[in-house]
Specification:
Blueprint: H1 5-25, H2 31-37, H3 70-82, H4 87-103, H5 109-121, E1 128-131, H6 138-144, E2 150-154, H7 158-167, E3 172-174, E4 189-195, H8 206-209, H9 214-219, H10 223-234, E5 235-246, H11 248-251, H12 256-265, E6 266-274, H13 280-283, E7 289-296, H14 305-311, E8 336-341, E9 347-352, H15 356-375, H16 378-381, H17 387-392, H18 434-437, H19 452-464, E10 532-533, E11 547-550, E12 553-561, E13 566-571, H20 576-602, H21 607-624, H22 630-637, E14 649-652, E15 655-658, H23 678-689, H24 694-701, H25 705-711, E16 716-719, E17 724-727, H26 728-731, E18 734-735, H27 736-749, H28 754-766, H29 787-798, E19 803-807, E20 812-816, H30 822-827, E21 830-831, E22 836-837, H31 839-848, E23 855-860, E24 863-868, H32 870-893, H33 896-909, E25 913-914, H34 930-933, H35 940-952, E26 955-959, H36 965-978, E27 985-989, H37 994-1004, E28 1010-1011, H38 1020-1032, E29 1037-1041, H39 1042-1047, H40 1052-1075, H41 1082-1107, H42 1116-1119, E30 1123-1127, E31 1144-1145, H43 1154-1170, E32 1176-1179, H44 1189-1198, H45 1200-1205, H46 1211-1218, E33 1219-1227, E34 1233-1243, ...
Parallel strand pairs: 1-2, 1-4, 2-3, 4-5, 26-32, 26-35, 27-29, 27-30, 28-29, 30-32, 31-34, 36-41, 37-39, 37-40, 38-39, 40-41
Antiparallel strand pairs: 5-7, 6-7, 8-9, 10-13, 11-12, 12-13, 14-15, 16-17, 18-25, 19-20, 21-22, 23-24, 33-34, 34-42, 36-48, 43-44, 44-45, 45-46, 46-47
Length: 1811
């Protein structure tokens, strides 16, 4: 029996109706009702129930094949509506159906019975049964039969849950997800059985998602894995779990950790693979599934052999996914098997069973009985264990796993204190807490005691890590030794007595030396006071763990709360000498902190405090030595407020000097400015306050405000909106149009404000040059264009009224047209097999720039399969293009006034940004220690950038490597803090260089308050303290790595807000999908639903965090960070976005990364606080690394408000304005058309560049004048070797046929077929690098890339031998692997064997396994001990400063992204390259190796063009308004025709291929066009005939009416006479007589279906006709009366029936004639309609295809290219010796020289000109 959709749906409706009824009547079901409810089977396989049904016309959105189900689906929705309290509940029911469509496949009862029967027969008695995903309870029914088990069942689906509750009223039915099962039910169930859900849907269960066990975390991300582990948790010891599940659990290698986790605590009782036709009868679907039965056994020791196989995924002999346990097929219930594809189109082995469900159940039962006999431990189930077993395995008590909260770090106090040693990072003075030095019992925050082994390891690493920082020779050399404090007052229970709570002795901490260098050993006081509130005044620099003196004791503070000035003082037990030293140190520190803070706050000098500081410091140094000697450093490290203290000394030439603060203020400039120059006064004000302060300027210049204003005319302007003066680059900046509008509004209220008028004038003058209408590119669907314009265009296009509405929230257009016509039904429609897409549907697609996904059914073997109907899609695309082009033409045809209005609107919205020339030269950066930095001053570019950041509250700092971004960050952060522009800036950088940033900051501002935690401070235990530190203290800057930043909890409220917007957007996409009805594939629906469910889990987690927030959780919002500097910001470019362009290549991952999402949360938090855009500064040399779509994400981060003003709320809205989508059609292996979509063109690029450059400071090294060598790029061409020539032929053949054997590989699998061109591209790359990359069967060749490269390396090696010049060799293919052949080792072998270079001078970056080894390699390069270094872009392209001696870079392959090539080149082309500068004309040779006829040169050219566009965009100097991005990428390779042409090595062939491709595309378009003409031809014939007949009817009716008008007679009262003359009556018979006669005729006349004349009226003939019909076996006769004129048309009144009333009967014929004018009018209207439609059809028929001229032009071009090719392959004359050839052809084109010479150098520019 097949799967009947109608029957299943009807049964579902009946079952639901009963369930709703029982619920209302509050009673249990009768036997009959119960049987009906058991027929319910969910909505799996009934996707049409989600189609729109609101109006009758919605049926047009349905597939034709499903039209029959429209009424029954309406009935279903009606039932749900009637039983919903409100719309919200109805939506919940519909959502419930939505997920049911994808998941509800109920298990045949016979199979379940086979399982339960086997359990019973094995002697299992079930007391507690759990069904975690119950459906309608088939498992409950089967397992509780004959057994009085207590049943608990979960069912998430609302509708199914309702039925389940009614079917099993005595069971505990819970309508919710299995994840909501209470924890107390763990370890309690005897048997758990179910057919569980499958999919990558996350589950909201924090005890899993936040568990320490990785398997549980992984399980929380996919529901099927979760059900297994959670189910096992719920089983009691010995209990059984039996799940039917998808094959993915056992097949997928990703699930191996889950399977291993299961085998750890469970025995494998049985595993059976079930056939694919198991669900066919019940759910109409074919899916593979497995039955897995486990028995819980916590005491088990190890895995059996079959359990180990169970854990392993292994491919079958056909390379399809499988599990090791099924290798021999004995565990698979089946009678047949074949190789086919699964429902997702992936290759799979399909097993079927001829016996249907009955046969499957029978075979399954037999297998289960055998398995239970062998592998079920009945004693274990009954709670008995063998004694031996107990001896072997200690039983672990089962403990309920705790819910791991994200932040609880209280650890249990450990009774024995353990010494902890700390590894010191070499470059940073790190805070050592008291806990780090002496472990202390009863202390809430503890460092977990490391094992002995780690302590040893750390101890060793300490020794190796003693390195001096900067100039401070011995700053970090004194590392503390592990120290155990003496234990006094130890209580018997092993805990410290109350008295000893903070009882620490600082033993080796201050080495115990007195001032005289003698060790004094006085007794330590016996008892110390208990911790108590601090009695001194809390200072701003006091924080947890800082040393203080209180009541004569030295100790440290805890629980510091600056808000109410309280802290707890913990005294320390010290020797007198130690105490004296600590007190002296604290004195110096306090006075220094006080002095610095006062001067910074009040900007005045404090001489008394300065003298005091000098006095205390001198006394300290005299007695205890300099601050930076080892013993003092050790003391300083125990003080959390002492980080700046070592910087009070500066070592110059080995001599210690005091820092500047001892002699003068450093937080402000002490130079008293007096000037009579207004410009200088302005600079001083900007420098001191960051703004124009006329009062201060007056004071220092002695000039009045008015004099200053006049003198600074043009430099400062009055801002009436803020009521203050601003400098020109602040006033004339940003959106000047918006600003001018606001000033105009102000002037309307204050018309006399002359200054404001002047300010308005400069704004108006500063407007960018107006872009005229003719220059603009318009895309149909740009969101800023008013919908009224689209409505006018659509009405014009279709010649009928069309309304267009745009919804901002869903970013979608809706269209309404009440009167459709032929333009819509015919001219702009596409008729596909499944449905017709009319003009309105296609216009909707055109507005959002998508193409309908049209499918058709084809037979594959004996199966009907749905495939994309490419011909219909191409036709739809053509019509959509036509509509989009028509829009542009229509705009151009409008009147000038309209065009001007539209152009104004465009200019006001997009062409309105001004980027001033930022001049930061006036800044003198108070507090910046230029001497310590070793610079005279910042570069002017750095000053300008800092000034820009200060004015704009952020920027994109797009500077090339070496431009000094680090100093920009540090000075900008410090300046923003100083001027109050930011209260607490944060800098985040890469782990590899965040140290340098912190060190640069400390050096630049030695007195700054910086928080820079080391990685040891970021252990989970200490992290919270750091977060608290950030929140509770004043910092000039906080510096973290990207990873550490990612650990900061983001504000749950902000996250929730953003994710809710995202969820809305996903839900809207879902609604859009549904409204399209049949266009939606199951896969699309499943994808969106999965995304929605995963977002919902995230939102639930956030909601939980918000509700259960603990006081000690500090999130980003609470920290008060108000500016973020993001170094290497391109690391965060993977941000999520929503788009409907899912088929477009190269858009990146729409889900984005958590890392990027965290940054978005943080930036939104700041933007919300400041209520403005920006709030962050992005620093990167590669802001746009690959595609202009990355620009959108930059704007999404930094300029959300500006985008909204342009009407851009989503990626699609952005793309609608700036991008053009192209669709290339290609022919696949099977010669089918395949469409490739991509955003290839970008339009309106200058405005895009303006929007980018307004917030960006872009500098190349050249702009800044960095002293670095120039790049000399050489494209080095190599002719192919004979092997390569031969392989190229095979590759071309493979690209045509897809035969894998041609390449010496297995045939392509179905999934590989789709990626054929990617495979071909990949092989071509390997082939060009080295044939041995393709196969080990090939040999070396003296002319391959490796040989040429080795020869070149040797040449440079010898040329720069004296200077020990070094070289870099890059390749991302064939990288170094120690145990196998690779290109790196091969070139090294050639260098050593053929060129005599010592092997130790050639190294691979991959040999640097850790940081230390990498540094050694880099050091070796800089010293010239290593001369050649190989590596890939990722390993050698960043973070390697080995440029000192670099003379050449070799690129064996070309990377995919321009930024990668720049990164590689940056290894040698950077500041500090001494050899290139002094010995190589200040240039580095960059050699790009290209094998002719390979993809090398093509790829390089593509890269070059891409980089060119990106550079032009950044420079904001684009000549073009449009950019073409090219058409090759790493995801899909390149297209077939270009590929073959390039491999053949003939550029003419490439042109030919491109032309042929365009011609083929146009030809197929033309055929489709002609087919649509064909259908129009028949329609035209029909319409022409219709017009003739209508015209004829009109003429004849008009004749009749004319006759009637002439003959009509009137009576004396003006009414019309009715002179009816009937046969058999006198001429003037009266009305009654006539009426009676007519009634007599009506009863008696029998005309046999003929018309009989019975009289006349006004010359018209009166007729009667007898009509026969039959009803229920009885003949029925009816006589009808008619009147006929000369036109031979018969007219009736009352349908020809005569009234019984004689008077009325007599007027029947006259009434009929009186209707004539109405008929005539109707015909007239019909004629007008047809006449209007005929030209449309005529136009379609006569329409020449619009691209005909283009096609013939392309054919002409093709013919000429073919002639050229023909000439080039005429036989060549005999070869002359190559030298002569070279002499003869020196003057010819370089491209020819390339082909005939080996390895000739060509400067890059030439190459580009050639192509």
């Amino acid at each position: 029996m097949g799967f009947s959709k109608r029957q299943h749906l009807q049964q579902n409706i009946d079952a639901l109706r009963i369930a709703f009824k029982l619920e209302k009547e509050k009673r249990q079901a009768t036997v009959g009702e119960r049987l009906l409810m058991m027929q319910y089977s969910g909505f799996g396989g009934l996707k049409f129930v989600l189609n729109p049904i609101a109006n009758e016309i919605d049926i047009n959105h349905w597939r034709k094949t499903e039209h029959d189900f429209f009424p029954i689906t309406q009935e279903l929705h009606q039932l749900l509506k009637e039983n919903s309290e409100d719309e919200k509940q109805y939506r919940r029911y519909v959502d419930s159906m939505k997920s049911s469509v994808l998941t509800a496949f109920y298990t045949p009862p016979q199979v379940i019975d086979a399982i339960s029967a086997t359990l019973r027969e094995s002697g299992l008695n079930i007391d507690k049964f759990l069904e975690p995903s119950a459906g309608i309870g088939s498992f409950i029914q089967s397992f509780s039969e004959n057994q009085k088990a207590s049943v608990t069942a979960y069912e998430k689906d609302l509708l199914t849950g309702k039925i389940l509750k009614q079917l099993y009223p005595e069971s505990n039915i819970r309508i919710s997800g299995f994840e909501e099962i209470p924890e107390k039910e763990q370890n309690s169930y005897d048997v758990i059985a179910s057919n569980i859900p499958f999919g990558d849907t996350s589950v909201f269960d924090l005890s899993y998602s936040r568990n320490r066990d990785n398997a549980k975390v992984q399980a929380a991300r996919s529901i099927h894995n979760y059900f297994f582990l959670k189910g096992a948790d719920m089983l009691r010891e010995g209990g059984l779990l039996a799940y039917i599940t998808s094959q993915g659990i056992l097949n997928s290698p990703k699930n191996e950790p889950i399977r291993r986790a299961l085998m750890q605590d469970n025995n494998l009782v049985s595993v059976v693979r079930l056939p694919n036709n198991l669900f066919t009868e019940y759910a109409g679907t074919e899916v593979g599934s497995d039955l897995i039965i486990l028995q819980k056994n916590i005491a088990k020791q190890n895995l059996t052999e079959r359990e180990d196989l169970f854990c392993r995924s292994r491919q079958t002999e056909y390379n399809t996914p499988g599990n090791a346990l099924f290798q021999d097929n004995t565990r698979i219930v089946h009678t047949d098997r074949k190789l086919d594809t699964d429902p997702y189109g992936q290759p799979a082995l399909i097993y079927t069973h001829k016996g249907g469900v009955e046969g499957i159940a029978k075979d399954l039962k037999q297998m289960l009985s055998e398995d239970f006999g062998k592998h079920l431990n009945l004693n274990l189930y009954k709670g008995e264990r063998n004694d031996e077993l107990v001896i072997q395995t200690p039983i672990t008590p089962t403990v309920t796993p705790p819910v791991i909260e994200p932040v609880s770090i209280q650890q249990k106090p450990q009774p024995v204190p353990t010494p902890v040693t700390h590894r010191e990072s070499p470059q940073e003075l790190k805070q050592l807490s008291i806990f780090d030095l002496f472990e202390n019992a009863n202390e809430p925050v503890m460092v977990a005691a490391p094992s002995k082994r780690t302590t040893q390891a750390k101890r060793q690493s300490t020794k190796t890590n003693r390195r001096a920082i900067g100039r401070q020779t011995d700053l970090f050399s004194a590392m503390q030794q592990p120290y155990t404090p003496p234990v006094t007052n130890r209580a018997t229970n092993g805990n410290t007595s109350a008295n000893g709570k903070k009882q620490e002795a600082i033993g080796d901490l201050f080495s115990g030396l007195g001032g005289n260098g003698q060790a004094d050993k006085p007794a330590i006081p016996d008892s110390i006071p208990k911790p108590a509130p601090y009695s001194g005044e809390l200072q701003s620099f006091h924080r947890n763990d800082c040393l203080v003196v209180d009541n004569g004791w030295v100790g440290h503070l805890q629980n510091v709360d600056t808000s109410d000035g309280t802290a707890i003082f913990h005294p320390l037990q010290l020797l007198p000498s130690q105490k004296a030293r600590a007190e002296a140190y604290i004195g110096v520190r306090d006075v220094y902190q006080e002095l610095y803070t006062k001067e910074a706050q009040h900007q005045t000098e404090y001489k008394g405090e300065r003298e005091n500081l000098n006095r205390l410091y001198d006394a300290f140094v005299k007695r205890y030595g300099n601050l930076n000697i080892a013993d003092n450093i050790k003391l300083i490290k125990t003080d959390s407020s002492g980080k700046e203290i070592p910087y009070l000394e500066r070592v110059i030439g080995g001599v210690v000097h005091k820092a500047d603060i001892f002699s003068r203020p450093v937080s402000f400039s002490t130079i008293t400015i007096a000037t009579d120059n207004p410009e200088e006064a302005l600079a001083a004000s900007l420098n001191k306050y960051g703004s124009v302060d006329l009062g201060y300027m007056s004071e220092i210049s002695g000039m009045t405000d008015d004099t200053l204003k006049v003198a600074l005319h043009g430099r400062i302007f009055y801002n009436p909106l803020q009521r203050e003066y601003e400098i020109s680059e602040r006033w004339i900046a940003g959106n000047v149009v918006e600003k001018a509008e606001e000033v105009r509004t102000y002037l309307e209220r204050n018309p006399d404000d002359i200054e404001a008028k002047a300010s308005l004038t400069v704004l108006e003058e500063a407007r960018p040059r107006r872009i005229e209408f003719e220059e603009l590119d318009f895309n149909l669907g740009e969101r800023w264009i008013p919908t009224g314009i689209y409505a006018r265009f659509a009405s014009h296009l279709f010649d009928t009224d069309v309304l267009v509405h745009y919804s901002e929230s869903s970013d979608d257009f809706s269209l309404k047209c009440d009167r459709k016509n032929l333009h819509i039904w015919e001219k702009y429609a596409v008729k596909a097999e499944s449905r017709t897409f009319d003009g309105i549907a296609l216009l909707k697609h055109a507005l959002v720039n998508t193409t309908p996904d049209i499918t058709k059914k084809v037979m594959v073997g004996d199966q009907e399969v749905k495939v994309r109907d490419m011909e219909a899609i191409q036709m739809a695309n053509t019509k959509i293009d036509e509509i989009r082009t028509a829009f542009t033409d229509w705009l151009h045809a409008q009147n000038d006034e309209f065009k001007n209005r539209l152009t104004d609107q465009y200019n006001d919205t997009f062409n309105c940004f001004v980027r001033p020339n930022y001049d930061g030269s006036h800044q003198d950066f108070p507090g910046l220690d230029r001497k310590a930095l070793g610079i005279e001053d910042l570069y002017s570019s750095q000053k300008d950038t800092v000034w820009m950041i200060k004015l704009n509250n952020g920027a994109i700092c797009d500077h090339e490597v070496g431009a000094g971004k680090t100093l920009v960050m540090c000075t900008a952060a410090q300046e923003m803090k100083r001027l109050g522009l930011a209260h607490k800036p944060m800098i985040i950088g890469l782990k590899s260089n965040v140290h340098e940033i912190a060190e640069a900051y400390r050096t630049a501002y030695p007195h700054a308050k910086i928080l820079f935690p080391g990685k040891e401070d970021f252990t989970p235990q200490k992290r919270l303290r750091i977060f608290g530190d950030i929140k509770n203290n004043e910092w000039d800057a906080v510096i973290l790595t990207h990873d550490q930043f990612g650990m900061i909890p983001q504000s749950p409220e902000i996250q929730k807000e953003i994710l809710e917007i995202e969820l809305d957007s996903v839900e809207r996409n879902l609604d859009v999908l549904q409204s399209k009805g049949k266009e939606v594939t199951r896969g699309m629906l499943a994808g969106v639903i999965k995304r929605k469910e995963n977002l919902e889990v995230k939102l639930k987690t956030l909601q939980h965090d918000i509700e259960n927030r603990k006081d000690d959780v500090v999130d980003f919002k609470m920290m008060g960070i108000d500016h973020l500097f993001v170094d290497e910001s391109h690391q965060f470019k993977n941000l999520m976005f929503n788009t409907r362009h899912t088929r477009v290549a190269g858009l990146g991952n729409v889900d984005g990364s958590q890392k990027a999402l965290n940054l978005l949360f943080a930036i939104r938090t700041i933007q919300e606080r400041t209520n403005a855009d920006m709030g962050a500064t992005f620093l990167s040399g590669t802001t746009i690394s690959n595609s202009l779509t990355e620009l959108y994400l930059l704007f999404k981060y930094l300029r959300p408000r500006a985008l909204e003003k342009q009407g851009i709320h989503s990626f699609d809205a952005w793309a609608a304005i700036y991008a053009r989508k192209t669709t290339d059609y290609e022919f696949s292996v099977a010669n089918n058309i395949v469409a490739k979509e991509r955003f290839r063109y970008f339009i309106k690029v200058p405005e895009l560049a303006q929007f980018y450059s307004e917030i960006t400071d872009y500098r190349t090294a050249k702009d800044i004048g960095i002293d670095r060598p120039n790049k000399n790029e050489v494209l080095y061409n190599i002719p192919p070797t004979p092997d390569q020539e031969e392989f190229i032929q095979s590759l071309m053949e493979f690209a045509k046929t897809g035969k894998g054997e041609l390449l010496g590989r297995a045939p392509l699998s179905p999934s590989e077929e789709k990626a054929k061109m990617l495979i071909a591209t990949d092989y071509a790359r390997k082939m060009s690098l080295d044939m041995r990359m393709v196969s080990g069967a090939y040999d070396d060749h003296p002319d391959n890339k490796a040989s040429h490269c080795a020869a070149n390396i040797a040449k440079y090696y010898n040329q720069y031998n004296a200077q020990k010049g070094t070289q870099f060799v890059f390749s991302d293919l064939g990288t170094y692997k120690p145990s196998e052949w690779n290109v790196y080792s091969e070139i090294k072998r050639k260098l050593v064997e053929d060129h005599g270079i010592p092997a130790n001078e050639i190294r691979f970056i991959q040999e640097g396994k850790n940081d230390k080894q990498r540094k050694e390699l880099i050091k070796g390069m800089n010293e010239g001990k290593i001369r050649v270094l190989f590596g890939s872009t990722s390993m050698l392209g960043t973070g390697v400063n080995a440029q000192k001696r670099a003379v050449a870079i070799h690129h064996l392959d070309t990377p995919w992204r321009p930024s990668d090539l720049a990164q590689r080149d940056g290894r040698a082309i950077r500041k500090g390259n001494e050899i290139a500068k002094f010995f190589a004309n200040n240039k580095v040779d960059v050699i790009i190796y290209a094998v002719e006829k390979s993809l090398d040169s093509y790829k390089f050219n593509l890269l070059y063009n891409k980089q060119l566009f990106i550079d032009q965009l950044k420079n904001n100097n684009l000549g073009n308004r449009t950019i073409d991005e090219g058409s090759m990428d790493e995801k899909s390779g390149m297209n077939f025709s270009e590929y073959v042409a390039i491999l053949s090595g003939n550029t003419d062939l490439l042109d030919k291929a491109k032309l042929e491709k365009q011609i083929a595309g146009l030809e197929s378009e033309k055929q489709a066009f002609n087919r649509s003409k064909f259908s129009a031809k028949y329609k035209l014939q029909d319409f022409t005939e219709l017009l003739e007949s209508t015209q004829s009817r009109f003429n004849r009716m008009s004749l009749d009416w004319g006759n009637l008008q002439q003959r009509i007679q009137k009576q004396s009262d003006g009414s019309i006479a009715n002179p009816v003359q009937l046969d058999g009556l006198p001429p003037n018979a009266d009305i009654k007589l006539i009426g009676a006669k007519l009634n007599q005729l009506a009863d008696k006349a029998r005309t046999g279906g003929q018309y009989e004349e019975i009289g006349t009226l006004y010359g018209f003939t009166l007729l009667v006709k007898t009509e026969m019909s039959e009803k229920k076996g009885v003949d029925i006769r009816v006589n009808r009366f008619l009147v006929q004129g000369e036109g031979n048309i018969k007219y009736t009144y009352n349908n020809g029936l005569i009234a019984k009333d004689e008077k009325l009967a007599a007027t029947n014929f006259l009434n009929a004639l009186e209707k004539l004018p109405g008929y005539i009018e109707q015909e007239q209207k019909k004629i007008v309609e047809i006449q209007k439609d005929l030209p449309v059809l005529q136009e379609v028929l006569n329409g020449t295809w619009s691209k005909e001229s283009r096609l013939s032009q392309l054919k002409t071009e093709l013919a000429s290219v073919e002639r050229k090719i023909q000439l080039s392959i005429t036989p060549e004359p005999k070869e002359q010796p190559s030298e002569e050839v070279e002499k003869q052809k020196e003057s010819t084109k370089v491209s020819e020289t390339i082909i005939q010479t080996k390895g000739i150098h060509i400067p890059c520019g030439y190459y580009k000109k050639v192509h």
